[in-house]
Specification:
single chain; 298 residues; alpha+beta; Nuclear Transport Factor 2, Chain: A
Length: 298
């Protein structure tokens, strides 16, 4: 057969066309079936992963709740166990809830307290009201507001206030925890702060203090009740060493500290008795003389 005739016969053959169409239909069917199988497999896979994720999240939530319950139980038990017994079983004990609250407080007020900055001050106030008892004994006064008032007193007097924690240790855990915090405050002095806190400072010494940063190391004691609420706060700060580092003369330091007003005057009698401030050292050495310190020193 002539090649052209053969090509024409193949091109016009209904049998071959039918066979081609049948093969094409089978290929399309198999392709669609594989697609459907793939979609079904993917759907099954996604549903299985979704169930696994839901189970995983439920397990995490359950474990988180269990951990929280165990932490609460641990905190409750710590309140009734003497510190030495806790350290015997857990040498790396971090102090529990009272120590964490103390560190949080210092962090919250590390740059002072300015009521006009509402977002920051609202957060500080909410924390303080949750952290301390409404009738907390503080520096010869009663109540949370006395703490806030004294923060305002310091923050608005000095050009800048910066506080940091040097150490934070639990001294007692049972029957109300006591936390001892050693802190360092950096107070940048100006004429207003000198006149307010050191009213008897000789005029000749004021230029030597204005613009200087007064560094005060303080030892604070945070006393908590059985529910980890702060009920009493006391502390002593070493203003003498900070002034001596600036003035370099003990007599000048003594002149600046004469009748100083580091502790605000209490204008009303507290409704409940409070522990009097510890007496100052009887020695005249400026390195050893320490004065009672407000909470701002934390």
């Amino acid at each position: 057969m002539d090649p052209d005739d053969l090509i024409h016969a193949v091109a016009t053959s209904r049998t071959l066309e039918a066979q081609y169409q049948r093969a094409q239909m089978i290929a399309d069917f198999n392709k669609e079936r594989r697609r459907e199988q793939c979609r079904v497999s993917q759907k099954i896979f996604r549903e299985r992963k979704k169930r696994e994720q839901a189970m995983f999240e439920a397990t995490v939530q359950s474990l988180a709740k269990e951990v929280q319950q165990l932490e609460q139980r641990k905190a409750e038990l710590v309140r009734y166990v003497p510190l030495q017994h806790i350290l015997a079983h857990q040498p790396d004990f971090d102090g529990g809830v009272p120590a964490r609250l103390t560190r949080k407080y210092i962090s919250m007020f590390k740059n002072g307290y300015i009521p006009s900055k509402r977002r920051a001050s609202d957060r500080q106030e909410r924390f303080l009201h949750a952290f301390a008892s409404y009738d907390i004994v503080y520096n010869g006064a009663i109540g949370v507001q006395s703490i806030l008032d004294n923060w305002v007193r310091y923050t608005t007097s000095f050009s800048s206030v910066a506080l940091e924690t040097l150490s934070c240790d639990v001294m007692k855990t049972d029957d109300g925890a006591i936390v001892r915090g050693v802190t360092r405050s950096s107070l940048k002095m100006n004429r207003h702060s000198i006149e307010r806190f050191f009213p008897n400072c000789p005029e000749v010494l004021k230029p030597m203090l204005i613009g200087q940063v007064l560094t005060v190391v303080a030892v604070m004691h945070f006393s908590f009740n059985d529910e980890d609420i702060l009920v009493q706060l006391s502390g002593r700060g070493d203003f003498t060493s900070g002034l001596l580092a600036i003035l370099r003369n003990s007599e000048d330091v003594e002149a600046v500290l004469a009748k100083s007003r580091i502790i605000p005057q209490i204008t009303s009698t507290p409704k409940t008795p409070c522990k009097p401030p510890a007496p100052s050292s009887s020695t005249s050495s400026p390195n050893q003389s320490k004065m009672d310190l407000d909470f701002i020193q934390v």
